[in-house]
């Protein structure tokens, strides 16, 4: 009974901090340096997509990892998540990175901003990063009021 209450409360907390963005459900909370959403669950910080998968499907099998089929690191839509072996996850990631490398080598970022002299050290578009940070600050300030 207690486990069911924990899962219900966790689902409510996830839903309160997420927003529909196309087919994805994007978590609007803290993000780590790799771009994955972080969430407090069972007394520790973990990835929001893992928690969403656990709440929706009951657990993650031993030796498996959760993979985003949509390639959106902040997506917590259980329909976009699946478990894979670490080897499969690396292979999918490498395939996606090849596509990203082609995009990074182009003159425009995926959102269409000019990238010349407009990139961070990691190759991300500064305009997109600034827009994200501004929206995050606004959301955070809105929650505090």
Written account of the structure:
The protein contains 4 helices and 6 strands, in the order αββββαββαα. The protein is α+β, with helices and mostly antiparallel strands and 145 residues long. The chain has 2 domains: 2-105, Homing Intron 3 (I-Ppo) Encoded Endonuclease, Chain A, CATH 3.90.75; 108-145. The strands form 3 sheets. It has a two-stranded antiparallel sheet. It is globular, with a radius of gyration of 17 Å.
CATH C-level label of the largest domain? Alpha Beta
* Number of DSSP-assigned strands: 6
Strands ordered across the widest β-sheet: 1-2
| CATH topology tier name of the largest domain | Homing Intron 3 (I-Ppo) Encoded Endonuclease, Chain A
Helical stretch count?
4
Give the ordered list of helices and strands: HEEEEHEEHH
Q: Can you tell me the number of structural domains?
A: 2
Distance between the termini: 34 Å
Instruction: Give start-end ranges of low-pLDDT stretches.
Output: none
The CATH architecture of the largest domain can be named as Alpha-Beta Complex
Classify the beta-strand content into a percent band: 15-25%
Question: Features of this protein?
Answer:
single chain, 145 residues, alpha+beta, Homing Intron 3 (I-Ppo) Encoded Endonuclease, Chain A, 2 domains, two-stranded antiparallel sheet, 4 helices, 6 strands, globular
